[in-house]
Design a protein that fits this description.
By secondary structure, the protein is of the alpha+beta class. The chain has two domains: 9-103, Glutaredoxin (3-Layer(aba) Sandwich); 109-221, Glutathione S-transferase Yfyf (Class Pi), Chain A, domain 2, CATH 1.20.1050. The chain has helices spanning 9-12, 29-41, 60-63, 90-101, 109-137, 148-168, 181-194, 200-203, 209-219, 222-227, and strands spanning 21-25, 45-49, 73-76, 85-88. A four-stranded mixed β-sheet has the order 2-1-3-4, covered by helices on one side. Strand 1 (21-25), helix 2 and strand 2 (45-49) form a beta-alpha-beta unit. It comes from Aquamicrobium soli.
Amino acid sequence: MTDLSAFPITRRWPAKQPDLLQLYSATTPNGVKVSILLEELGLPYEAHYVDIGKDQSWTPEFLSLNPNGKIPAIIDPDGPGGKPLGLFESGAILLYLAEKTGKFIPADPARRYETIQWVFFQMAGIGPMFGQVGFFHKFAGREIADKRPLERYRVESRRLIGVLETRLASRQWIMDDEYTIADISMLGWVRNLIGLYGARELVGFDDFGQVAAWLERGLARPAVQRGLAIPAKV
């Protein structure tokens, strides 16, 4: 049996099955990237709910795995060389799992890097901008009288959706007919923008038919539906 005692996070979130990949997460757009990919891969794993509403990601145990205090994070007991590996940052975890399994990332080097660039597009653009729209439109930021920040993020979010719209013209997925970690990285964010954040009309989402159709295709996948609910709140 794998010994994960070197990872202090396991003291707060004990591993019942330490031979399985350990996921520490919540059902945020960043968190569900990893649970969706794990469900798509069919890899056995153990999910631990980290209550970010109670600042559990800022506890010493969680910070020992991710000093940046953000979900998701993983421990793979069967990492490189057969040694346990801890990882944080959702984009890095997607790349690691895709490359480890050889799935949801193209084998061709040129297409592989093309896929990675779209993952980085999500990490650098879609995530931060959509998140700011959520804050200033739906959450505490909406109480700020100065609406210039919201307008800034609204305009940029609409522009980013337009980039996706252009990319998806005549394509089923970001990488043509190949569903990849690029799609997985963005599905939860686009879903939240028009769902939880209530910004459908704000950004004029219905102007982007290609993106809407892509989102519908993605959300119809059984693994995506499962992943969006993992880990369950406790």
